[in-house]
Design brief:
The protein is of the alpha+beta class and 873 residues long. Helices cover 32% and strands 25% of the residues. Helix 2 runs antiparallel to helix 3.
C-alpha cells in the first residue's frame, strides 16, 4: 500500500544529476528513512545520468513510500535504447567504465528492480527494503561517556498535574509541591493558566489553554511559584479519559534544563545520527524541511508543502501567503491539488464566523461535506478532512499551511499540534524569503517602468505607441493583450491592436475579440475581471467540437476545430481590463489575459496599472501630435502652388526641400502661373528664417504675386506693392528676397523673360557652348524700406539655353569652413550642357547633397527652365 509519494522532473542538462540526488535525499530523510538514503542516492544518480547525459532526454523521478520500503522510478524518453536481459549472457560492461553501470548497481544494491517500456518512455525502477529494527523500540541513542550525558539535579523531580475538562487542576503531586511551593489544597480547583507566567511557549502561537485541549503536546512555559519566582518548565501533556468517559489532561513537568527527561528526541537525518553532542545542534526548521532552505521563495514553499503532506500522510497540502493588509491569502504552493488552477488564487482570511472560519487560528475539519465552503481552496477537489495552521511572525499573520486528505476524520488536535510546531519554525524563514522576493519584484518593477517610460516617450506615432504597449505587456505581464481605443466620447471602443506570445494564435484571438462586444469604458482605476472572452471562446470551441462529431452544422473550414480549441485555451484563464485614462478622459482600455485556469497576481496587476497610466498619456500625446501634424501639413500644403502648368516651348522643373522635421513648407518658395494668353509669371523667393512663421510670409507673397500679376501690373509694380504688404504685417513682417519674372515663349523657339532680382541670388544662364553668366542685376530686398525703386531686365533664352534660379540654401551649403557659393554653383551648371531641365535640377541637387555629409539645415528651392527649340519634322 502506497502511503506517500513525491515526484520531480529534471531537464537534460548536467546539473540535473546533482539536483536529482538532492531531491531523493531530502525526500527519504523527510520520511525518516535515513538508513537507505545512501543506496537510493547512488542508484538515482546513475539512472538520471543515463537519461539526461547519455540519452540526452529529460528524466522523471518518482519516489513511493510503502510499509515494506521505498520504490524509486526513473523514466526517460528514449525507449529504443537496448536493455540487457537477465537470462541472456550479455556482457554488462566493466564496472570501471564511465557509462552503463546503472543496471549493475541496481542488481547489486536493490532488493528488487526492473525495466518497463511504453511507446514513449523507458522506466527503470528499484525497491529498497527497510532494515529490521528491534521490536518495541521507539527510539534509541548510542552509548555515551558519563561526561557527555545531559545535566540534571541530584534528584530529578517530575511534577504530575492532572487537569479536568474545564482546565482546572484536579490532582497535584508531591514533586509538584517541591518544585513550585504550593500545597495541593492551595491549587486544586484553580485553572492552570492562573499559575502560568507567560501565555504560550516562546516562539510559538499555541497557548497553554489551547494546548490542554490537544491529544498530545510538548513544549516550554513558566510556572510562577509560591515565592513569586518563575520556574521555566518543560511539559509533556497527554489527553486521557477515565472509566466514566470524562476527559482530562495529564501534565508531566520538569525543570526546563532537565527537558531531556521528557522531550521526544528529534528525528535527525541519517547523516547526522552519528554526530557527537559537541557537534552542531540540529535546527528544527532544517529537520522539518530535510535540508537547508532553498534560495528562492517558490522552492522553499514547495518543499514545505511536500514535507507537511508527508509528515501527516496527507493526500494534498497547500501554503498561502497573506497580502500586505492581511485581508486575503494568496495560494503560493500546493501539492496534490490542480496547481495550475489554484496558483495565485485568493481566499479571504475570515471565511466565516468563529475560530474555525479564520486563518488566524489552527483549525481541524473532520468532514468538509458537513461544512461546505469552510475551506474555499478545496472546493471541488474531493478532499474531505483538513487541518490548517497559521504562520505568524511577531504576532502578525503571514500565511497559512494546510494538509488535506480524501478520507474523513483523518486529523485531530494532535496533528494540528505537529503541523503548528512545523509552521512556527518555518514562518520566519518564509517571511524573510517573501520580503526578499518582494524587494526584488519592486526593483524589477521600477526598472520595468523606467524602461517603459523611455520607450513610450521616444515616439509620437500612434501605431508605434500601440505596438509598444502590447510588446511591453506580453509576455512580461500577461500571455496576451488587446488594446481598445476610443476616438471621442460619442464613439464606441475600437479594437486597435492584439498580441499573443504565440504568433500563430494572434489571428484567432483577433477574430474572437472582434465578434464580442468590447468592455465598457469605465473610468474607475484598477483592474476589473472581464469574463466575455473566456465564455465566447468556450462556446465557440463547444460548437466546433459538436460539428466535428456530426452533431451540428458542418464546419466551413476543416482546420477550424484546431484554431478554435487553441483560441479557447489561449483565453480560458483570467482576463482583466484596465482603463486608459488621460487628461480626465477615457481614451481606451488595455485588456490582459492568461491561458486556461491561470490568475493574475496582485503585484502584476499593480504593475500593469502603473503601465496603463503611462501608456494612456503616451497614446494621448501621440493622438494630439497626429492631429496637430495633420492640421499643420494641411495648412502647409495650402501654401504650396498647385501642379505646375505646361508651358509650350519651355521645359520647367522644380525641386523643393523644406528644412525641419515634419515641415512641408518653409521660408523658401516658388511659383509658376499663367498671367494671360501666352504669358507666364514665375517666382522664387526666400523669407528670412524657417518654420511656420516664415511659411506665413511665404503664403502672403505667393498669393499677392498671382493677384497683382493678373491685374496687369508689371514686375517692378508687383514687387513694390508686395513690399508694402509685408511692411503692413508689423512685428510679424520678415525680410524677403525675391526673383520675379514674366515669360513669353516665342514662335522661333526662343523665350523672352523680364526679371526683377530683389536681393535674391542672381539667376544663372547656361548657353549651349557651356558658358555660364548672371541673367540679372542685384536690387534691394523686400520688407526693409518703404520706398523702393525697382526695374526689370529683359533676357532672351535661345534654343538650348537654361535659366537656373536657386535660393541661398543651395549656394550657402557648407562643410566646415568650405561653402559651395556662386562660383561652385556655376561650375556644376557648366557641366549640364545638353541636359533637360529635369536633369539639370537633379544634378544641382545631387551636387548640393554630396557637398557635405550633414543633412541640409536650410530650406532649398531649385527652378530650372530650358528652351529646347523648335522640333524639326
Amino acid at each position: 500500500m502506497i502511503t506517500a509519494r513525491a515526484a520531480a522532473s529534471f531537464e537534460p542538462v548536467g546539473r540535473s544529476v546533482a539536483t536529482a540526488r538532492s531531491f531523493v535525499r531530502d525526500t527519504l530523510q523527510g520520511w525518516g528513512f535515513g538508513d537507505i538514503v545512501d543506496d537510493a542516492v547512488v542508484l538515482t544518480s546513475e539512472l538520471v545520468t543515463n537519461a539526461v547525459v547519455h540519452a540526452g532526454t529529460s528524466a522523471d523521478v518518482l519516489c513511493l513510500r510503502s510499509d515494506e520500503g521505498v520504490r524509486i522510478e526513473v523514466a526517460d524518453r528514449y525507449p529504443e535504447r537496448e536493455i540487457p536481459l537477465q537470462a541472456a549472457a550479455i556482457n554488462m560492461g566493466s564496472p570501471d567504465r564511465e557509462g552503463g553501470r546503472g543496471l549493475q548497481l541496481c542488481a547489486a544494491l536493490a532488493g528488487r528492480w526492473g525495466v518497463e517500456y511504453t511507446p514513449t518512455h523507458k522506466q527503470v525502477w528499484f525497491q529498497l527494503d527497510l532494515p529490521e529494527r528491534p521490536v518495541g523500540t521507539r527510539t534509541a541513542g548510542p552509548s555515551l561517556p558519563a561526561d557527555l550525558l545531559p545535566l540534571a539535579d541530584g534528584r530529578v523531580r517530575v511534577a504530575v498535574v492532572q487537569i479536568d475538562r474545564s482546565g482546572c487542576i484536579s490532582a497535584w503531586s508531591e514533586d509538584a509541591e517541591e518544585l513550585f511551593g504550593y500545597a495541593a489544597e492551595q491549587v486544586v480547583g484553580k485553572p492552570l493558566t492562573d499559575l502560568a507566567a507567560w501565555p504560550h511557549t516562546p516562539g510559538t502561537s499555541t497557548g497553554i489553554a489551547e494546548a490542554l485541549q490537544l491529544s498530545r503536546w510538548e513544549g516550554s512555559y513558566g510556572i510562577r511559584g509560591a515565592d513569586g519566582r518563575v520556574t521555566p518548565v518543560y511539559a509533556s501533556h497527554l489527553r486521557v479519559r477515565d472509566t466514566a468517559g470524562e476527559p482530562s489532561t495529564v501534565c508531566l513537568l520538569v525543570r526546563d534544563h532537565e527537558r531531556a527527561v521528557l522531550q521526544t528526541p528529534l528525528r535527525l537525518p541519517a547523516s547526522d545520527t552519528g554526530a557527537g553532542p559537541e557537534g552542531p545542534t540540529a535546527d528544527a526548521f532544517e529537520v522539518f524541511i530535510g535540508s537547508p532552505a532553498p534560495d528562492d521563495l517558490d522552492g522553499l514553499l514547495q518543499r514545505t508543502v511536500e514535507r507537511a503532506r508527508d509528515m501527516l500522510d496527507g493526500d494534498s497540502a497547500f501554503l498561502l501567503l497573506a497580502t500586505d493588509d492581511e485581508t486575503e491569502l494568496e495560494v503560493r504552493a500546493s501539492t496534490g491539488l490542480p496547481s495550475a488552477r489554484q496558483r495565485f488564487a485568493r481566499v479571504p482570511v475570515e471565511a466565516g464566523p468563529g475560530r474555525y472560519g479564520s486563518a488566524r487560528m489552527p483549525a481541524v475539519h473532520e468532514d468538509l461535506t458537513v461544512v461546505p465552503g469552510a475551506v474555499p481552496l478545496l472546493g471541488g477537489t474531493g478532499m474531505r478532512s483538513v487541518v490548517t495552521v497559521p504562520l505568524k511572525v511577531e504576532g502578525r499573520l503571514t500565511g497559512s499551511l494546510g494538509v488535506a486528505a480524501e478520507a474523513p476524520g483523518r486529523y485531530s488536535n494532535e496533528e494540528a499540534l505537529r503541523l503548528q510546531f512545523a509552521a512556527d519554525r518555518i514562518a520566519l524563514a518564509v517571511e524573510s524569503a517573501r520580503l526578499g522576493e518582494l524587494e526584488r519584484l519592486r526593483r524589477g518593477s521600477l526598472s520595468f517602468l523606467v524602461e517603459a517610460s523611455d520607450l513610450l516617450a521616444g515616439t509620437l506615432d500612434r501605431d508605434q505607441t500601440l505596438a509598444l504597449m502590447a510588446q511591453m505587456t506580453v509576455p512580461t505581464l500577461a500571455t496576451w493583450c488587446a488594446v481598445y481605443t476610443i476616438a471621442d466620447q460619442a464613439s464606441e471602443p475600437y479594437l486597435s491592436y492584439v498580441l499573443h506570445e504565440d504568433e500563430e494564435r494572434i489571428d484567432g484571438l483577433k477574430a474572437l475579440l472582434a465578434k464580442i462586444a468590447p468592455p465598457d469604458p469605465v473610468p474607475t482605476p484598477g483592474a476589473r475581471v472581464w469574463s466575455a472572452p473566456a465564455e465566447a471562446a468556450h462556446q465557440a470551441a463547444l460548437r466546433t467540437s459538436m460539428r466535428s462529431l456530426g452533431l451540428g452544422e458542418q464546419p466551413s473550414v476543416s482546420s477550424g476545430i484546431g484554431t478554435t480549441l487553441a483560441t479557447a485555451s489561449a483565453v480560458g484563464g483570467e482576463t482583466v481590463v484596465l482603463p486608459l485614462v488621460a487628461r480626465n478622459r477615457v481614451i481606451g482600455m488595455l485588456t490582459l489575459g492568461k491561458p486556461s485556469d491561470e490568475h493574475f497576481r496582485q503585484e502584476i496587476l499593480e504593475l500593469a496599472e502603473d503601465l496603463s497610466r503611462r501608456a494612456a498619456l503616451a497614446l494621448d500625446n501621440a493622438r494630439l501630435y497626429s492631429e496637430r501634424m495633420a492640421i499643420s501639413q494641411s495648412l502647409q500644403r495650402s501654401l504650396l502652388p498647385p501642379e505646375l502648368p505646361l508651358v509650350d516651348g519651355v521645359e520647367v522643373e522644380v525641386i523643393y526641400r523644406a528644412a525641419g522635421e515634419g515641415n512641408e513648407v518653409g521660408g523658401d518658395f516658388y511659383d509658376l502661373f499663367p498671367i494671360r494668353d501666352g504669358a507666364y509669371g514665375f517666382a522664387i523667393g526666400d523669407v528670412c528664417g524657417t518654420g511656420p512663421e516664415a511659411a506665413a510670409v511665404t503664403g502672403l507673397a505667393r498669393h499677392a504675386l498671382r493677384l497683382l500679376a493678373r491685374e496687369g501690373y508689371g514686375g517692378p509694380a508687383v514687387l513694390e506693392r508686395l513690399n508694402s504688404a509685408i511692411l503692413d504685417e508689423g512685428a510679424r513682417s520678415r525680410f524677403l528676397t525675391l526673383l520675379y519674372g514674366e515669360l513669353w515663349p516665342q514662335e522661333d523657339g526662343s523665350a523672352v523673360l523680364k526679371v526683377v532680382c530683389a536681393g535674391h541670388p542672381l539667376p544663372l544662364r547656361l548657353r549651349q557652348d557651356g558658358t555660364v553668366e548672371p541673367a540679372a542685376e542685384p536690387q534691394p530686398l523686400l520688407g526693409v524700406m518703404e520706398d523702393l525703386e525697382l526695374y526689370e531686365q529683359t533676357v532672351t533664352l535661345d534654343p538650348g539655353d537654361v535659366l537656373l534660379c536657386v535660393t541661398d540654401g543651395v549656394t550657402e551649403r557648407r562643410e566646415g569652413t568650405r561653402m559651395l557659393g556662386d562660383d561652385g554653383l556655376a561650375d556644376v551648371l557648366t557641366a549640364c550642357t545638353g541636359l533637360t531641365a529635369g536633369a539639370v535640377a537633379a544634378r544641382i541637387m545631387r551636387a548640393v547633397e554630396r557637398f557635405a555629409s550633414d543633412a541640409p539645415s536650410d530650406d532649398m528651392a531649385i527652378l530650372a527652365m530650358r528652351v529646347p527649340g523648335l522640333q524639326k519634322d
